[in-house]
Protein 1
Amino acid sequence: MRRSESQIQGTSDSCTLSKCSISQRGYNQDPYISCFVNKSPRRAPLINLGYFVRVRAIKDAVESFLEFIGGTSAQIISCGAGFDSNYFVLSGSKKLGPNLVYVEIDYPEVVQKKTDLINNSSTLNALVGTIVSPTSSSGIKGSNYKLIGCDMEKEDELLKCFIVYEIDFLVPTLFISECAITYMKVESSSKLIKWASKNFSNAAFATYEQITPTDGFGIIMINHFQKLNSPLQSIDKYPTLTSQKDRYLELGWSSCKTESIMDIYLQSVSKAEQIKMLSLEPFDEFEEWHSKCCHYSLSIATKGALVKWEPLCKIDEQIQSNPSFPCNWTIIKTDLRRFHHTSCQISRDEFLVIGGFGPHNNGGNARLPGICLVVIDSSQGASSLSQLPVEAPLGVTFSRVHHSCKVMANGKVIIFGGRTSPLNPLSDCLILSICRDDTSNIKCVRVEQLEFPSHVRPPPCWRFSSVIIRRASDEEALMVFGGRGSCSQTLGDLWLLNLKSFTWQKEEQFDGPVPRFGHSAAVWEGGEQVIVSGGLLENGCDYPLNEIWSWHYVSKKWRKFEFGDASSHVPLARYGHGSEVVTDGSGEDLLVMIGGVNGSSRQQPGIGIFNLHKLISVEYSLPLPTPEYPLMTFNHSCHISPDQNEVIILGGGGTCFSFGTSFNSHIIKINIKQLCKISQNLNSLPKEKS
């Protein structure tokens, strides 16, 4: 067996183990998958959810096909089936009629192993049905189940096998490729697609595979399969939803619809079931999970009588990305490797970075316990990273994620909330005093832990937004809004911490935004107003929000911005982003939204500019990362330089499904002036009437 074939079969074995994991954890009911493994590993929740949406997409397509054909004669042909148990699940649940033939094809070596496992299992044997010819080394030939050993790249051999196994070329036939033909050479997979269209009169071809290889997540995905010596052969030629659809139309199929798994999952799985799936295990990796779903698609091509079968007809692309303007960035090498951290700017070139997830000194990755200092030398295009000595009360920990840190007027830093694990949210409040020596170098950070009555304080939370707001009287307060209180609780509370008396007050809210998490907040009008953008709704069971709200510190009133009709550009929905308000050269106040995740398979958020007076916006796409530096603009922290000339992005990255964990290796700097040019051209439009 060729090494490439062996590596491809290795991906099948890994897939089977993952499907076994989701069955054991209750994501789906499959009592047969365990018959094909000799161990039952427990995968991480992120991987379990990723495989659940994969299994669910194929399951829904197959059951829709069975419903469409009724009890008439038909076939399902699974290409590269591996140790898939779909036939046994369908047969065991009595969903396969007597006139349905289920066919599986894979390399002869895989088929031999599967044949042995089936023959040695009374449970599986009972579901195979009548064997109309003796089981041979090349597979199983039953009346309703056929297992064929054949290299699908060899058309002549495939045709001979189909004749021997009495495959019917006239009855309605559904071909399934679940991450299978993508490992074939693109010429071979295209020949197979065309061959199926040419030889089967009434057919459909359902293909689940990877798309969008050029962004940071996509590069990590591509590199993963390259390292396994099982590269994705088709993705470069067919990288988008549109190109996937066009491929089938060009290869002889009458119709084709292609949708992202993100859209299919959110629109076809009920909210109740989504909530149930998210409650099976503690889970908080929404950015990575949604990114995974945006990088996979399901294409269903049809011809003949099956053209009327439209399983994806109710699925629409929800996140519309208008044409965006390009912008440039400058990247600076850094030793900072972390995400889910927080940071604050304590001088023009100095940034405190606190907590987060990254490489640990003892090996592996973990929540990081310390405070480090990042210094950027823009003139040299360089940066430095150092750990700072910390003097803290016993029991204080910085090993947390999704917390906040803000600089107060007196130069001290306040830290609030976050979590250790999703089962352990935090509500503590820490004050950091930065102590410098005679040469202005930081010699240590002193930590004070604030104490509050338990009944007058925010609940433990993370993924909230926080800003420091001010009145003209120099009254200062930390505003905390929304967030997650637990894996099943999304908050909509608004709390203020007076930074003189250090007392909390919960604000009454009327006609304000619904509970959310993963949103961002920025101060406006000298700190008297707060702009809240984006986020995810309760339980994260929907698309990111395309909303911008303001809250006034004096009037205590919320106001929702309505996007103007004067521009075809509207802000891309997003969450997990950062935001700041800047003033452009013409005196217009602009909300700058930086990075995040939007749920689109076409384009992830870059830099969004929203004119707070004219209610119009412009979206800028960031440069494509390189294979050497697969930068991702989520799970990061960001800042605007004091002169409002630059956006500065620190850290970022994520655990990219089963493809590995990646940390941004560069600081990103983006010149704001280039972002304001288009916005200034839009300023000729009339101002909003007050």
Protein 2
Amino acid sequence: MHRCVFSHGGWIMAAPGGGHGPVEMSLSLMEKLKVLPPDPARGAAAPSRGLWDAWVMSAEAEGPGIWPPAVHAVAYGTLGKSPPLPVGNVNDRPFLLHIGDVGDLRKLSFVCTEGLHGKGILLSKVRLKDRDTREELGFEAANVWLFGKDGTEPVTELAVIRPDCQPLRDVEYEVRVRTGDVPAAGTHAPVHLTLVGEFGDTGPRPLRRGDHRDAFLRGQTSMFTVRAVDLGPLTSVLVGVRASGLGSGWFLDTVAVRCSPGSPGSRGAAGHAELLFPCRQWLDDGVGDRSTERTLRLLGETRDGLGETLASHGGSWTLRLHTGDFPDAGTELGVSVTVCCRAGAALPIGVPRGALRARGRHYEASLVLPEELGPVVKVRVEMEEGEARDSWYCRKVTLRRQRQERDGRGGSGEGDGKEILKFPFVRWFSPENGGQVSELPLLSSGSPESPIPVVLEYVVSVRTGSSESSATTARVWLTVTGERGDTGRRALARRRGERSFAKGRVTSWSLEAVELGPLREVLVEKGPGSDWHVEAVSIREGPFAPFEAVFQAHRWLRDGAAGPTASVRVPLTEVRPSAVTMAPLPSDAPAPKSDGRWRVELTLGNEDDDDGDGGGSARGSPGRRQQQQQTLLLPPGLCLVVYGSEGKTSPLPLVGPRHGTGDGGASSTIAFEASRPSSTSSLSPSPSSPSSPSSE
């Protein structure tokens, strides 16, 4: 017995002339799989152990003579993915893939880490068979080049073909990477990126510079294309740089992703929406937390007509709260949603317990925003406290302006129901590690080059007094207020095994919130229970921020007749340098040591710039521009002296390879390779210069 799968992948149009008669068309055979009937003697089918026999067949007559050991396969399913598994051959001989329990398979990803020496492999067939359930799966592999025709693509993905559902389509993702505009932000090190969605991920993909010399340099935006089987709604981006040593890091500003408009996987107009994943951090093993790899969470989407800045979003709206469509995504706990506007917040919308129990469903409520609150700036979602195992996956929150009856003058009232504000949370809520509250801003139409509000991690440290009876066992809440809004009331939950609010103790928590701007005050609240002496609160934008805001309280919070809670508002006292601005080196990591080789870049500006910073536009005749280009030929005796914390170098001749990028425009850059003795130690500004030499 065989199971035949026929492919169409297109619209079935109505009969010509708008009639209701039958429509005939031909469907091509995609896959023919052998299906064995159940054996009554064996009883019920045995559960799968995740052991699959695999057949991979090349369309070439003999296939590659020596199969490279660097080729692996990764299986993606509804419950996760397998580790990289070695691919035995492409000569249609069976080999074993121990995939494990990943749920229903969605795609198979072939990964090559060493390249195939200038030629890919043309496939004709890929097939999998479960050793226990005897289930067979096919793939649309005919005439597909494994790792590209020239063998330079690191990954090739194939979607599983099932008769009961449409196979996932191939999608081209356009990726825009913007490097920050801060000193030494750029990097020449290799950069890799992984797109992550609800259906899986792409695996690490190298972002090759190709002909783009300015890729990953300061202030530059670089474009790349990533082809993969449809990932579903994107949730995050993993970015890394393979660099180590002083000055080799990279300051990443933003990653923006969208489906190519002509891609088979783009979904109509939604395919043109650009998803933003902000970073605004260093990827550097010598800065901050020393991380060279970061996971960027989805902030929102922008496209023309989405979330333009308005004077007010006042009126009637329909709020929808969407739960993810996969196992255990729902929750029995209650949830609240707060819409925050420029002039204040609307009353929270409470979702009763059990309303979000079902996966893939949404809860709907009506909301009226007063005109005086102004435009919407962000949405806050909070899940009530529960057990550590309680969790809920929120896919998104939407606000749709309600359709109004036409008024007596023929107007359409407040709106026609087409205005929608979207907040793609795509994240799990859990009582563990303070993950019960999350915020997202409303993004205006624009691009990553425009300033956008981002979600920051605020590290809050609370110091309890050292006098007798200063400690408390009561519940404590904190509200942080800045020039751009507040965090809302956040519970400072006690962690198991930690003595929070103990005498003389400093305890820290992490709060995620849309950036608040310069901080102004904190509101500290204590519930019923023992008295508490709060001495001070300090807040940093991340664990290794260079500065911290300090709020000196020195107040007792006691139960009284004023209400069930005692509170104190504490204004900002001072902003001071943080005590810890860099993570310690691992105990087994060698201290970074320079070998004395440096890349020196000279940026030559246009002498006609009005402000003298090289940022003006080039002017003048073609002869003048040619003269400017000739300034790239520097005099042969030009030298550089580098000052460090332990002395200075001898004059370093600027000789050797030069990489000019000047085109007669506003500025031109020449790169040199220079050497200096390692005894100079870390660089410091020259006594005659107000700033440090660039080491980008």
